[in-house]
Amino acid sequence: MKAASFDYIRVTTLDEACKALSEFGEEARIIAGGQTLIPLMAMRLARPSTLIDINEVEELAGITIENEQLVIKARTRQAEALSSNIVNEKLPLLAEAMSHVGHTQTRNLGTIGGSLVNADPAAEIPLIAQTLEAIIAVKSVRGKRNIPANEFFESAMATSLAPDECLVEVRFPIWTGEKIGFGFHEVSIRDSDYALAAAAAQILLDDSDNCKQISLAICGASPTPVRLRPQEELMLGKKLNDELINVTCDDFHNLIEPQSDVHADANYRSRVAKVMATRAICDARDRAKGILR
């Protein structure tokens, strides 16, 4: 199939992008990588009246560290983030998850901001944003605002981004400490497919190897990535032995809303999510202890 007719605008500054969004209304769409939008348009599942191309907006690309946060601009390619020394050193959990995003070809075009705005329930980048309490900065002609990840993702393929707002950057807090570990696991039908269920964990241990700080979240088992705060609280201040981890991850069915589809039923997604969470925590613990690299 072919896309329905649309107008095309190329902008060179963020202000121009915001002005165009304001002018052309709810039917306008930002495009940079287009790895999801273009196929949807080809199938006529998406029919924007206007595409606003931001590929020449330099202020929307780049990776920096500011105020103890790792800042990734919206137009930054996924492949660039995956290969970034800064990301691999300061945010290895994101780098690990990024290796599961699509294929090399799609990562070369796909952007960090595009994945966040698309808000697929099984996508890895939104999962890490939820896990690490990222802040998503957006802008419009009305001004700027910062949206916590837990308020940004509202439902499957839906966010709190207003129609006239452009995602500018995502800011990940950088943890500090000697014993920090991370873990990421997912199950998919084929390598690089969307996850049937995935889990991400990051842990800080104290000098006695007790859990000092922990973040744990899953995706693929609910309409949005889910932070498992009750499970985190059960592990804080304790030694993370296998028994504690298994017991803790055995009961979070009340926090998730798995859906059945052609790929897997709800019960399977729920069971897999528990296994993925257990493995992610175990890996994070072992990396924090220096057992796993």
Key traits:
293 residues; Uridine Diphospho-n-acetylenolpyruvylglucosamine Reductase, domain 2; Enolase-like, domain 1; five-stranded antiparallel β-sheet; four-stranded antiparallel β-sheet; globular
Structural write-up:
The protein has a five-stranded antiparallel sheet with strand order 4-5-10-6-7. A hairpin with a 2-residue loop joins strand 4 (63-66) and strand 5. It is globular and about 60 Å long. The model has no long low-confidence stretch (mean pLDDT 94). Helix content is 34%, strand content 25%. The longest helix has 24 residues, at 266-289. It is built from twelve helices and 14 strands. The protein has 293 residues and is an alpha+beta fold. It has three domains: 7-53, Uridine Diphospho-n-acetylenolpyruvylglucosamine Reductase, domain 2 (2-Layer Sandwich); 59-173, Uridine Diphospho-n-acetylenolpyruvylglucosamine Reductase, domain 3, CATH 3.30.465; 180-289, CO dehydrogenase flavoprotein, C-terminal domain (Enolase-like, domain 1, 2-Layer Sandwich).
